[in-house]
Structure formats: structure tokens, C-alpha cells
User: Which sequence fits this backbone?
């Protein structure tokens, strides 16, 4: 009995060993899966270790000097030397200040009012005005808190200022577009793009590989139809699905979280449709050029989704990332859509203020469609 048990146990381990060898051989042949298993942890490590910064630095700032004085020049020099602010523009008037914030070209606009130096020397406790784009409170909060120390440091060497021990001025901060620093106002618009990115990529990346696995691709290839016609026919239904998803998310955001839609709803719908089509084009490209089965298609979609989520400004401030990470982010659709949707919903931006991001989305969509059409496989080999 013990001999039979030993033989049975030996057969058990031989069968397990055979299955183990089989799985390793299959994994070695499936290079896409093997590469994904290695690259995803390395990608996460790189992004979290180097690109992500919860305390943003060198945020673009505009300065409006209403007077030409030693104090004004000292404050401007201090702002230029600090790590929190990067002075990119000197403004002429308040209208230009409003336009700079609305366009998103700067996150801060600091105004040094007329007679500021005179009021300081008289001990009148004047106000230094700062307007901040609070659509992303994480980016603006620490910088506003640091402004007082920056200015005080700048004024230490100025002679003639009263040494009372009390603050010589006050900072009046106006956090525009989200004055209450409400998290839903920041999260919901970005979440619209994140959900659409994930679902649209997966839907379309499975479209062609599903045909191959089910054996219906042979019939499709035998039809008198061009690759462009196949792509448009497969993408079109999902555009409607994505649009319905977007409407549902926006409706829930307005009703449940009180997120406003300040801008033109038709413009938001049109640019959301463009974003949906862009992600569908990328998903279709994965399924036609690289993926050979549905598992590989999903893996590639997740590989594309991860940097979109990390480098777009959804979780971490975009302008707080290193320059190389910002460059990569500019080539990701979600980066441009988050800017668009926040600008329309919270700022009431017009198309003229969104030209760069709109053209970037259109260019990315055209690139993905071109690759998908030109690399479409006309055979199953």
C-alpha cells in the first residue's frame, strides 16, 4: 500500500512539474504579457519616485506692479528667486490679469497696488493682492501659504520700514473658480476624463481581437471593405456609448456634488466627443497593430491608461512635475481634456481659449487613426 502511495505521489508531482514547465514555456512565448509584468512595476516606480510631487514648485505667476518703487522691485526679485513661484509675465492692467488666469497660462496673479510702499512706511497695514486659479487647490494652497514669508524676507533689508514686530502688510487672497476649495469641483471634471479613458480604451482594444478569437475575422477580411471603413464602423457605436457615459457622469456631478457648468454646454459636448473619439482610436490601434488576443489588448490598454492618470494633472498638480514628465504628459489625451473640462465647467472658457488643447486632441486622434489604418493586418498570420 505504501508503494502504491509512493507511486501515486510521484505521479502527482511529475504531472504538477509538467504543468509548471508548460506554463513557463507559454509565458516565454507570450512576450507581450511578460513585458507587461516587468514594465508596469518599473513604470509605477519611476512615476511615483521621480515625477510625482505633492508640493509643487515653480508655478507660473504673473505680477501686476501698480507702482514703480524699491519695495515693489524687492518683492518681484524675491518672487523670482523663490522655488514656489516662477514669474512668467508682467501685466499692464487688471483686465490682462483676468485674461491670464482665465486662459490658464498662469496659476497666480500678484498685484502690488499703487502707494503700497508709502502705506508700508506709514504703518498703515496695506494689502498685497493675490488671485489664484483654484481649480486645482492642491497646487495653489501651499504657495499662497508661503507668499507671506517670501515677501517678509524681501522687505528685511529695506530701510525706512517701521520695526513694530507686527506684520507690515496683509495678504488678500482671492481663490477664483473654486473659492471654497471644494474637492468635488476639482475631482469630478477630472474623473469624467479618467472614466472615459479607461472604458473607451478597453471597449475598442477588444473589438478586433474578439473577432479573431471568435473566428469571425476571416469573414470580415473576405468582405469588400477597406481598413478605414472597418475602423469607423467599429468606433461609431462606442462614441454614442461614451457620450451617454459622459452625460451620466456630468448629471451626477451636478445633482449629487453641486459641480457647476459655467461655460457653454454645447462646446463641452463637442470637445468631449472629440476626446472619446481620440481614446477609441488609440484602443483600436492597440487591437489592430500589437495585440493578438483579448488579454494582450487589456494589458496594453492599462499600460496606456496608467501614465494618463499619473501625468495628466488629475491626481497630482501637472505644473509641479519635472519638466520631462510634463513633456510626456503633453502627448497624452487626458492631460488636454482635463484642462478643457475644468476650464469650461469652472471658468466658462470659450473655444478661443482652448485652441491649443483642442488641436492637440485632434492631432493625437489623427495620429492614432493613421497608424491603425496603415498597419491593419489583412491576413490572420
Assistant:
Amino acid at each position: 500500500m505504501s508503494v502504491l502511495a509512493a507511486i501515486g505521489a510521484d505521479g502527482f508531482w511529475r504531472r504538477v512539474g509538467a504543468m509548471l514547465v508548460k506554463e513557463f514555456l507559454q509565458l516565454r512565448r507570450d512576450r507581450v504579457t511578460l513585458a507587461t509584468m516587468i514594465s508596469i512595476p518599473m513604470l509605477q516606480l519611476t512615476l511615483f519616485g521621480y515625477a510625482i510631487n505633492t508640493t509643487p514648485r515653480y508655478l507660473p505667476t504673473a505680477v501686476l506692479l501698480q507702482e514703480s518703487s524699491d519695495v515693489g522691485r524687492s518683492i518681484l526679485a524675491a518672487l523670482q528667486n523663490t522655488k514656489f513661484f516662477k514669474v512668467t509675465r508682467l501685466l499692464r492692467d487688471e483686465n490682462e490679469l483676468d485674461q491670464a488666469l482665465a486662459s490658464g497660462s498662469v496659476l497666480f496673479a500678484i498685484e502690488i497696488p499703487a502707494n503700497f510702499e508709502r502705506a508700508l512706511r506709514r504703518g498703515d497695514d496695506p494689502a498685497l493682492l493675490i488671485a489664484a486659479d483654484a481649480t486645482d487647490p492642491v497646487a495653489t494652497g501651499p504657495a499662497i501659504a508661503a507668499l507671506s514669508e517670501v515677501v517678509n524676507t524681501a522687505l528685511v533689508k529695506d530701510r525706512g520700514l517701521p520695526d513694530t514686530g507686527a506684520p507690515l502688510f496683509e495678504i488678500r487672497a482671492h481663490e477664483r473658480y473654486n473659492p471654497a476649495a471644494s474637492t468635488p469641483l476639482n475631482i469630478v471634471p477630472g474623473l469624467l476624463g479618467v472614466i472615459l479613458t479607461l472604458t473607451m480604451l478597453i471597449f475598442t482594444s477588444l473589438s478586433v481581437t474578439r473577432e479573431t478569437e471568435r473566428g469571425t475575422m476571416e469573414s470580415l477580411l473576405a468582405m469588400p471593405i477597406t481598413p478605414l471603413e472597418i475602423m469607423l464602423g467599429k468606433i461609431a457605436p462606442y462614441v454614442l456609448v461614451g457620450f451617454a457615459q459622459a452625460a451620466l457622469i456630468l448629471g451626477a456631478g451636478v445633482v449629487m456634488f453641486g459641480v457647476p457648468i459655467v461655460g457653454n454646454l454645447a462646446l463641452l459636448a463637442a470637445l468631449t466627443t472629440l476626446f472619446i473619439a481620440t481614446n477609441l482610436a488609440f484602443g483600436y490601434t492597440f487591437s489592430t497593430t500589437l495585440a493578438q488576443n483579448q488579454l494582450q489588448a487589456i494589458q496594453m490598454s492599462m499600460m496606456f491608461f496608467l501614465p494618463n492618470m499619473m501625468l495628466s494633472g488629475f491626481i497630482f498638480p501637472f505644473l509641479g512635475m519635472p519638466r520631462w514628465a510634463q513633456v510626456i504628459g503633453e502627448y497624452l489625451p487626458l492631460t488636454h481634456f482635463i484642462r478643457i473640462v475644468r476650464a469650461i465647467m469652472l471658468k466658462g472658457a470659450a473655444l478661443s481659449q482652448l485652441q491649443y488643447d483642442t488641436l492637440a486632441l485632434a492631432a493625437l486622434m489623427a495620429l492614432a487613426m493613421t497608424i491603425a489604418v496603415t498597419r491593419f493586418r489583412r491576413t490572420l498570420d
